[in-house]
Specification:
This protein is α+β, with helices and mostly antiparallel strands. The protein contains three helices and eight strands. Strands 1-3-7-6 form a four-stranded mixed β-sheet, with no helix packed on it. Strands 2-8-4-5 form a four-stranded antiparallel β-sheet, with no helix packed on it. The protein starts with a strand and ends in a 13-residue tail after the last helix.
Length: 148
């Protein structure tokens, strides 16, 4: 599968020329999940194209992340992984291309892939609440603006 990475904040007033972030999922089609696939599942190749040049990170060992319902915690991609710089997209090049293979297990549901581990709204709220409790001035309840 070939996935073209859009500019960061694409389609918004804040769109930039950077092409860094990606987050998507893939899963076996229902036909494959119903038994038309090999017992061990299916392997798929992914190529992410048009990315900004982060070649130094990948050369130093950085890899995208993934998780699934059977593996609910994010992990770095394992196995075959490669990258290639093809010149800046805004200068007519192909950008950075990331390539990897992933083995999909039968009935495993969607597998999510991301540039880095997503930090969701709920996790952000929990962190802010913890910081407020730990750093609230004495005599003031966390979240109470009247006693500031």
């Amino acid at each position: 599968f070939s996935v073209e990475v859009a500019p960061d904040c694409a389609g918004s007033p804040h769109q930039s020329s950077h092409r860094t972030w990606f987050y998507f999922s893939a899963m076996l089609a229902q036909d494959e999940a119903d038994g038309d696939s090999p017992a061990g599942g299916l392997s798929a190749s992914f190529s992410l194209c048009n990315m900004s040049n982060h070649e130094k990170m990948y050369r130093a060992g950085y890899r995208p992340w993934y998780r699934s319902a059977q593996m609910p915690h994010w992990q770095r991609l394992q196995g075959d992984f490669s990258f290639k710089w093809g010149g800046a997209v805004d200068e007519g090049g192909t950008g950075l291309t990331l390539c990897w293979r992933h083995q999909f297990e039968v009935n495993s549901g969607p597998t999510f892939f991301a540039f880095c581990v997503p930090f969701g709204f709920e996790a952000c709220q929990q962190l802010l609440e913890s910081l407020e409790q730990n750093f609230a001035p004495s005599g003031r309840a966390a979240g109470d603006p009247e006693k500031a």
